[in-house]
């Protein structure tokens, strides 16, 4: 009489939200016959998560909404009942909203967002919250929904200038359209609430509006009329910025425009008193007239000077000075001459070197008379040319000046002897050139290479044969230093020759040096080296140690190379064997011969005739060579021999080599 569950019971499928969930049944009992009715109550377990209608919710809330406003949220659904059903909601932490969970008449829960702190779109344009629904199970199941809140803009911000006062300066007589200043304001609102229009303030004078124009979109203030410094020196312009909101916000700023004076007015001379006629016996210094001079311009433009209207004039605009190198320090090399037709202090001239930090340690000029001195000895090989500027200035106020360029050229002296590059003179190594016996005349044997640090004729080098073992055998090129055979070498010529070459430049005085050349007459260089070993210095025992060390390194390196090469060849050989085995296994059907596993089928002769067309490998074979299939014959031995004959020659030898013996006819 046990009542068993016949299939899985789903309470939500049977009863939905109905609670309690009951199933009725009847039981018939025989002997005696009785009828019993019963009810099974299906108890709920927490096997369902709460579910939101969508994974994301989107709200638009104006930043002008007051605190306390409520915003209903979509509810989650949980098919479980009782304590396992949806019990509460939770909201992620944020500074603006709180969550209020309410209960309906049927006991279900729903949530509302409550605005606790007013929104500010300029501070935060959007908010992202997470709403979590929890049931009462243990552990509780949950569901989440993302709430995206767009903060809608309200015209709650007035435009703001980045400066309350702008300052600009413009020259008088500036043409119309010249940019004076650019004002800029910003509005944190969006759309029309943030669009700005610039304009003059209502109390801006009409005169200012005639002289200046303002771009309402860009805020650029430009010259419109004719500015005159003598009329107005400073303009104070008031501007405003408005947004395009229903109730526009307004901001104000001030632009101070200073008019810069231009020297557009000539001095005016007025005779205030005249004494006339003048007696012929008037004493020197008698006042004849009083003059006054005025200028409407300001500052320097309005200052009037009587005299210093002539700048100093030099007899030459530029000077070229040639100085021999290795000069005596402190010698004068040039006198810069200039004159000024003014009188008195206005005609007093002073001379200075401009940028004297560059050549201040080399040159100096007398401030009063313009004499240029050379302070140190110059070297043509170090620097050939110096360029500088001399300024001649009078004593007027303001002073007038003239610049004169001076170029100093360092001329070359023959102070460097020729220097031999080959053969190197400062070495103990013997340079020996080789010439073969019987060499004909005109054959170039070697060449002397030399340079001279001087310039021009002082650097021209000539080569002459100063001394030779046989003066008739060799000659040297006068200008190129090439050494030739003057005649054909004979058998009776000396085997070793020493030549001394004289090298002279063309300077005044002539400077010279010499080079020594050794020439050996031999068929090969080996003979020369053999001869040289006879005169080589005593051997150093340390050289043998070095030789043995080098030899040991070479032997170890050779052994390592041979070892690595052998390992590589062996690895390649093994790889090829495995590769051939792999290819063979892919193209041939291998079948395990049942009880004859690990037995050489070719050698044993126990394979049934029906298996003769298969190829089996020996148990110790490492090869993967294949044999061709041959039709069945009456003799097992004949079948095996035919199979072997139809294989490739290489394969035939290989199989014979792997079998210890062939089966006899009796077998």
UniProtKB/TrEMBL annotation:
It comes from Melospiza melodia (Song sparrow). GO terms for biological process: homophilic cell adhesion via plasma membrane adhesion molecules. The keyword DNA-binding does not apply. SUPFAM superfamilies: Cadherin-like. It is a single-pass type I membrane protein. The keyword GTP-binding does not apply. Its main location: membrane. Gene3D superfamilies: Cadherins. One of its GO terms (molecular function) is calcium ion binding. Keywords: Calcium, Cell adhesion, Cell membrane, Glycoprotein, Membrane, Repeat, Signal, Transmembrane, Transmembrane helix. It is found in: Cell membrane. Residues 53-161, 162-269, 315-420, 427-539 form the Cadherin domain. The chain crosses the membrane at residues 547-570. Pfam families: Cadherin, Cadherin_2, Cadherin_C_2. InterPro entries: Cadherin-like_dom, Cadherin-like_sf, Cadherin_C, Cadherin_CS, Cadherin_N, Protocadherin/Cadherin-CA. This is PCDGK protein. CDD domains: Cadherin_repeat (cd11304). GO terms for cellular component: plasma membrane.
